Amino acid sequence: MATSASTAAVDPPRSALRRQLDRWLFRLGAPERGPIELVQRRIYVLPSRAGLVFAVALVVMLLASINYSLSLGYGLVFLLAGAGVASILHAFHNLLGLRLRPGRCEPVFCGETASFGLVVENPRAARRPALSLRLGTRHTRFELAPGETRDVQVPAATHRRGLTQPGRMVLETYWPLGLIRAWSVFVPDMPCVVYPAPEATPPPLPPDGEAEGRGRATSRPGDDDFAGLRAHQRADSPRHVAWKVLARGGPLLTKQFSGEAGADLDLAWERLPAHLDTEARLSRLAAWLLAAERSGRRYALRLPMVVCPPGHGHEHLHRCLRELALHGSARQENDR
Asked: Are 309 and 300 in contact (CB under 8 A)?
């Protein structure tokens, strides 16, 4: 059964209820482009579990001091209570004034872990210790030096292709005593492109354009005779890297070979078997794109309403994979 390619995942009822509560309690709405500044109204403070136990212990100590008229007991209770009240102010100021900006999220294949980056800036000349950025059940702990700006990465699992937003993120701290939790909730506008998962065991690449009379064999870089060196590209095969040049302290270069190569590969939607559904077709095309890139040949991608002309290289590969990820989405229709 085909999976929807919407830009937002379908939430279970519990998550939908949480989103409604967030809108009511924290005034959360559409994703924010930033910068997001944590002012007084955006920071919330409540006792932690340890703080509640601490408060109960203070009440018991106070009752015992009253019952037995313990002057030192009164002093100890008020001293500890004062420390607890002071920790409220310290936890609040540990978040106050921080500035948050959406960072980058590198594209991933569906099923892989995406890494959402949030740029956190500390404009004050004071250290910000014991900070934690949480997304769902995963969190990243960090601290900021005075005036420091840091790119904090938070991992998140991916379950569907398309544009995925991180959703609800929480920046929190329990500093200094762990008795008080200060936190802020926000939804940054930080879309991540999730490519379709490549088919595990795809069939061989389809015949090139020559098989249908649309192309012919031409002289292109092949694997026959050594033709020289060129600058290395990320999509180049490791076996073509000039390792001897690199070992002598030279730059990273790739060997070029000349020979006869086939015509451009035509990876077309309509040439796939009719029994494949939408997601299966996208999965096979993703696997073919990766195989075509590894082969070093030029390839074109043809989808309904979308045509990527023949090309090769890292940028061309990711352009084609992005078209697969956005196939059928409202975002893709708006881009046309």
From this structure: yes
CA neighbours closer than 13 Å in the CB half-sphere of residue 299: 29
Mean pLDDT of 305-326: 92
The C-alpha atoms of residue 106 and residue 112 are separated, in whole angstroms, by 11
Residues 184 and 225 in one domain: no
Res 280: pLDDT? 94
Which residues does 20 contact at the CB level (< 8 Å), separation at least 6? none
Helical H segments across the chain, by residue range:
13-25, 49-68, 71-95, 243-247, 278-295, 314-325, 330-335
Per residue, the 3-state secondary structure of 221-256, as one string, reads EEEEEEEEEEECCCCCCHHHECHHHHHCCCCCEEEE
The dihedral over CA atoms of 8, 14, 17, 22, expressed in degrees to the nearest 10, equals: -70
Does 4 fall in a domain? no
Q: Which token pair is 197? A: 């998962």
Q: Is residue 304 located within the same domain as residue 176? A: no
Q: Do residue 215 and residue 266 come from a single domain?
A: yes
The reply to whether 317 and 290 lie within a common domain is yes
Looking at the 3D structure of the chain, how many domains does it have?
2
Of the pLDDT bands very low, low, confident and very high (cuts 50, 70, 90), residue 235 is low
For residues 118-146, average pLDDT: 94
| Among candidate residues 138, 165, 194, the one where a domain is terminated | 194
Q: Residue 187 carries which DSSP code?
A: -
Identify whether residues 157 and 114 lie together within a single domain: yes
| Secondary structure letter of residue 112 according to DSSP | S
Q: Is the pLDDT confidence value at 11 over 50?
A: no
Q: What is the mean pLDDT of the chain?
A: 83
